[in-house]
Each structure stands twice: as C-alpha cells, then as structure tokens.
C-alpha cells in the first residue's frame, strides 16, 4: 500500500505498526482519533484483518479546530481552523479501495465523543489530533479503558509546528503514570 497523504511518513507508519504488533496478545480493540483521509487507518485495518480486534475511527471531518495558546508556534502558522479537512466519504472510499475490513467510524469533535461510543477495552490507541485539546480529550476518554499492556502512540509529539501535542502528553503523564515513555520519529509512545 502507498501513503494516502503526506501527514504521516513511512517511518512513522512502520513505528505505529510495530507498536500495534506488540499488543497482539493484549485484550481490547484499537482506536484512532484523527484519521483524516485514512493514511494510517488502512494500515491498521489491514493489520487487524485476522486479529479478532475491531478498529474504531474518530474524526470531526471538519478539519482542524481553533488553536489554543498551547498550540501556538511560529513553525506552525500554516495550521489553521478548517485545514486538513477530509470528508467521511473520502475516508470510506480510501478504505474500500484498500480492500480492508470497514472500521467503525464516528464523526464528531473529540470533546463531543461519549464513553458509549468508545470500546469497553482498548489494547492500542493512535492519537493524531495535532492540538492540545485534541490529544487530552481522547486521553480522558480512553484512559480507564486501556488494558494492562496497552500502548498509546501520539503523533506530532516531537513536531515543533504542533507543540500542543507534547504539552498535552507531558501534562497527562504528570498525573497518570505510565510504565515507560519513549519518543521515536515525531511520535510519543506511552506503554501502559
């Protein structure tokens, strides 16, 4: 498969899939918050094809929200409200063209997603919300549902253009201990 956008690199996809593989024997489904056109979604869905786990996707399908002060960076001026907009129809088309099992797709801002819309148990989470609130909101939603041994990968942790992602993760880790935390490429990886 080829990458559907330039919002994630081949190296980052490799890291995400490697970490997903580490949760093969961990109970629970897989969630992705911020799927855009489905660049990582198609790889996740393909990998989960025979794993007995379901993929749950969440996106506003309205592009980026407004920035907060935590998201401000001279390197990230191009990221504005409404940027990176992809429709649910585009996502579904890309998933069908990749011939992967269709995930559960929920449309909405992450702050509007309810606990009923999230799997009861989660083995792996990929958070690609770009901004401070768009990382904290999913962490609040999924944290108590993460199975022992689960892994959470946060995109843009080491991206100077999107400092809110790192601020959210660092703040979260101060009050929610993790077994281990590493950074690889632009990804922050939390081992539960």
Content of β-strand: 15-25%
Arithmetic mean pLDDT = 92
If you compute it from the alpha carbons, what radius of gyration comes out, rounded to the nearest whole angstrom? 15 Å
CATH class: Alpha Beta
SSE run: HEHEHEEHEHEE
CATH fold name: Rossmann fold
Distance between the termini: 30 Å
Trace the largest sheet across and list its strands. Answer: 3-2-1-4-5-7-6
CATH superfamily: Vaccinia Virus protein VP39
Category by helix and strand content: alpha/beta
Shape: globular
Strand segment count:
7
Number of helices: 5
Instruction: Give helix % range.
Output: 25-40%
- Count of individual domains: 1
Second rung of CATH, namely the architecture: 3-Layer(aba) Sandwich
Uncertain spans, ≥5 residues at pLDDT below 50?
Answer: none
Q: Biggest sheet: strands, sense, closure? A: 7 strands, mixed
Oligomer: single chain
Question: What can be said about this structure in brief?
Answer:
This protein has five helices and seven strands. The chain is α/β, with parallel strands linked by helices. It has one domain (10-191): Rossmann fold.
Tell me the layout of helices and strands.
Blueprint: H1 10-21, E1 29-33, H2 39-47, E2 55-59, H3 88-97, E3 104-107, E4 122-127, H4 132-142, E5 146-154, H5 163-175, E6 180-184, E7 187-191
Parallel strand pairs: 1-2, 1-4, 2-3, 4-5
Antiparallel strand pairs: 5-7, 6-7
